[in-house]
Design the sequence.
């Protein structure tokens, strides 16, 4: 439908064909990445890879009643950060939430504290690599960055401070929850079954994911590495578990949403609707005030409309690597106030609902209003 609308716009002369082609060339690699990484993650989840990871975490944790919850919380936070950075924030929202709730219940860790830790990390820690967030991939597809290496050279400092802030915030909130909340239930430590340990497909997925994660930080095109990983996993499923291969492995609704956004982006970039934005900043914004203004605008827009259209709408404001990173800080870290600001937040809330954990949106929004300015303004300060 979006493609048809774009075609009509081109025919009517509203959208320039060459500009539309440039935008499509930026979006196609992202589509390929989303399809491939979805296959890798969802097949891995079905064969029990993530349950196996949690089982390993529980096995290495000490048995001491006071120390065990602390160690498991630290390991869970590390896992959430790693998954967000290398496998995207949406993966964290779905997979880590599903694992974190039972892990918290079994080990006397405040469930509400862990739940907020996951959603905050998913959004705020999604800056380090292009693959961490679809908005980062859109930025990488612009003319501002020559590739992943240059992106990393500008993003690593603000990304690091954002991660440290969110870890500190989750620690404070979890400690608070430990004092005011009662533990819901406990159970025995989950152990992997012998059949699961002997599953060759589980081993294949584990090896593929372990190799893919560092490769995603390399100069190898992200869409190529994830495509190869997906093909290896699909080839492994074919002779053993054909039932795992289905159209449901890919979030087609999300892809259709991104496709629709491409039509809106074509209008934004070629009709001059957002041309008035270009005069709001200097040609090469570098001061803290200028970069913080860009980040703040991104955060406000993301909470009003969602982070992806917010990035596309405000992109005319930016042209340099530093300004792009500032915008990404705003649209990545700040969408923790309104429920619709980030798709990852909605996926997270749905997982909590399925697990019987109830969190009021009013609580989410109040805490987000407190944390969002901090995780936007301090990382921007690391850029000047």
Sequence:
């Amino acid at each position: 439908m979006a493609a048809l609308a774009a075609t009509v716009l081109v025919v009517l002369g509203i959208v320039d064909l060459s500009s539309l082609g440039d935008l499509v060339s930026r979006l196609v690699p992202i589509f390929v990445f989303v399809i491939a990484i979805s296959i890798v993650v969802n097949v891995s989840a079905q064969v029990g890879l993530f349950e196996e990871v949690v089982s390993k975490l529980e096995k290495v944790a000490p048995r001491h009643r006071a120390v065990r919850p602390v160690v498991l919380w630290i390991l869970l936070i590390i896992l959430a950060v790693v998954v967000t950075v290398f496998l995207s924030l949406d993966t964290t929202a779905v997979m880590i939430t599903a694992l974190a709730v039972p892990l918290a219940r079994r080990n006397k860790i405040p469930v509400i504290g862990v739940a907020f830790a996951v959603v905050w990390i998913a959004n705020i820690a999604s800056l380090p690599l292009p693959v961490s967030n679809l908005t980062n991939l859109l930025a990488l597809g612009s003319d501002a960055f020559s590739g992943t290496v240059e992106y990393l050279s500008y993003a690593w400092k603000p990304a690091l401070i954002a991660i440290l802030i969110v870890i500190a915030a989750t620690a404070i909130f979890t400690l608070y929850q430990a004092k005011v909340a009662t533990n819901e239930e406990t159970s025995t430590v989950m152990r992997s079954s012998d059949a699961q340990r002997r599953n060759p497909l589980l081993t294949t997925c584990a090896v593929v994911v372990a190799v893919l994660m560092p490769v995603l930080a390399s100069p190898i095109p992200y869409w190529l590495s994830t495509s190869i990983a997906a093909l290896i996993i699909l080839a492994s499923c074919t002779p053993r578990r054909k039932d795992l291969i289905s159209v449901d492995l890919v979030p087609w609704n999300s892809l259709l949403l991104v496709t629709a956004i491409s039509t809106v982006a074509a209008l934004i970039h070629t009709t001059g609707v957002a041309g008035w934005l270009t005069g709001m900043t200097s040609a090469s914004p570098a001061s803290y005030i200028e970069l913080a203004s860009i980040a703040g605008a991104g955060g406000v827009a993301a909470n009003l409309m969602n982070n992806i259209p917010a990035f596309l709408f405000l992109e005319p404001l930016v042209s340099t690597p530093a300004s792009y990173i500032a915008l990404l800080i705003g649209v990545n870290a700040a969408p923790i106030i309104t429920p619709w600001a980030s798709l990852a937040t909605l996926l997270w809330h749905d997982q909590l609902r399925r697990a019987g954990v109830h969190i009021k949106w009013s609580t989410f929004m109040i805490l987000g209003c407190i944390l969002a300015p901090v995780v936007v303004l301090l990382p921007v300060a690391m850029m000047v």
